[in-house]
Design brief:
single chain, five-stranded antiparallel sheet, alpha+beta, five-stranded parallel sheet, 679 residues
Length: 679
Amino acid sequence: MDSPTTEPITPAWLLARAVLLLGALVAANPIVLLVLTRSPLITTAIVLSAVLGLQALYRPVSRSPLLPYAVNFLVLGSVIVNAEYVLRTFLSHRVVPNIYQLEDGYYFNRPRLRLTFDDPEYRALYATNAQGLRIGETDDPERLIATADWVFLGDSFTQGAQVSFEALYSSVLYRFFPDRIIVNLGASGLGIGEELELYRNRGSPLKPSIVFLQLSPFNDFMNVEPRQVTISERLVTHSALFRTVIHSQRYQDPKDLPLGRWTEPFYPDRAANQRFNVFYRDTNISKERDLDLFKRYLHGLKESVQKAGARLVVVLIPSREQAIPSALSEVQAAFQIASSELDMLRPNRLLGELGREHGIEVIDLLDSFRKEGASAFFEWDEHLTPRGHALVADGIRRAVEGWSLPEPRVRTVRFEAERYPRISCGGTLLSYQAPVRGAMEIFTLDLSSQGTRQLTFDGEPKAHPMLSSDCDKLLYTRGEADRLRTDVVMVQLATGFTTVLTSGPQEFGAIPFLDRANRYVAFAEWRELEKPSQLTNPVIAVQDLESGHRKYVTEDRYESWRPAFSPDGGRLVFIAKPTGQFDLYVHDLVSGETRQLTATPYDEWDPSFSESGQTVVYAARKDGNWDLFTVDIQSGLEQRLTHSKGDEWDPVFAPDDRSVYFAGEFGAFAGIYELAVSR
């Protein structure tokens, strides 16, 4: 046998191979060339030249057995890269969206998503914040949630991709308990083992007091072992090409299914029912192993939640076949399953027994769904409709109220990140600000009819609105608050005539408050010094609207903000920071005397008088978040109104002093609320 011929390595040999490899890459990357040259003619010429060059070079240098494989590998890889590029750039409408990222073996939402899911049965916006938590259409994706009162774990029923954020059962539930921070950690396909890891990684750091685990017979009792992350799943997560190609094979269109809809855990063949169907009496080793694993994981989750000082509650949502007799009859007839072969209450009994054994509260929603019927589920998709989510929220509400937890003390007005409520127009209206297309505009709420009205439409940056008692004047702060370059503006509503009260040279102001007589305006004022170029501390200014005369209540040796007149106009309450934090002060406008109301190691903010003039309501950062307090002017006696994990601020007494309106932020929700107070 002849010995193999060894080709000498020469500069020409190296150059030929380099040209060959470069030519292969160029020939296989016409899209990249088109982007670089922006000329179809030049791109075609380069590709043809590369192909012809390959033909000429390939024969003289093809004696190496690895060279053809290397060239083929490069060409194939380049084709895949080009296909990925073309799909993402020119055919993006055909790309199957990827809403998940892999985290320690389970899927969770990608951050900053904004997708719309269109289906013959529904259309829903799917948006997430920077943490991957679902948010509403107008919510700020950069607003993070650091703590929670209640956390919900669950699969696609809790994720609720088929409905809007506002229709999710966790969002509907918030309307019953608006002083709770509720976080929804639902993600499609999660099993109880993955939900245990999700709680440890994402739920536990939020320090919730209650952890709700949503389960259903749809898929929670089969394939219980946590998934092993495969190369295929990683490709699905990262490659638009692979995800789009495999989607039609992995996920059937419900119209192509035997009954034209999803029927899990019911299957057409006996073996699959033995293996997966929790309702099917006949069983096998795999199903029993799944049920055993389910019990172990549920106990493990209970132990983890209890160790963190929280409470675990299981919410059991029935399957369509449990809730709708006709749906059960349909699958029995189509799959030839006799009634004697089924135990339709098996998962309910199992969870009841496990709940008693491990001390876990179980909220079984079967009766509620049976009364509702088909309207709780989409027909093909089989997930919950908005009505189904409302049923879940109502069932949880009734259970929670039976635990004798503190009653919700607030009532929301809207959920659009409104701020700075003020009683206006002689106590008939509430003025406030709310975002409209990215800009703050001014609205009013009629306290009798609860009707709202938008007053401004100009898109200018504005804040701290207040209407005069005769509804003739509108005051607000206008300008760039982050740069402290704002003015106090007054508008005559009848004529639109606008006056800038802080119109002096290098003069700025904010947070105006008009007295009941509509004559005096108090606000914080500061100036920019020429040498050196810096801002003075804000002081409390009081301006006479008739004479234009302005007097000052405080000095610029320290910061002073948030002035508010007493109902009789004789006093001002404000905050000042002569030491390390803001405290409350009261100034008598007749005597000129100023008295300190509070002296605490934490900040107070947003003071406002009661209608009687004897009490001041304010926000204070006592426990690391803002809560509401009152202080009696004469005795100095303080009373705490809220103890939530959220932030409550901007409080004002209602005209009858029996409640307080305020702005609040509770996780994904922010708006204006009302709190009843004892007098």
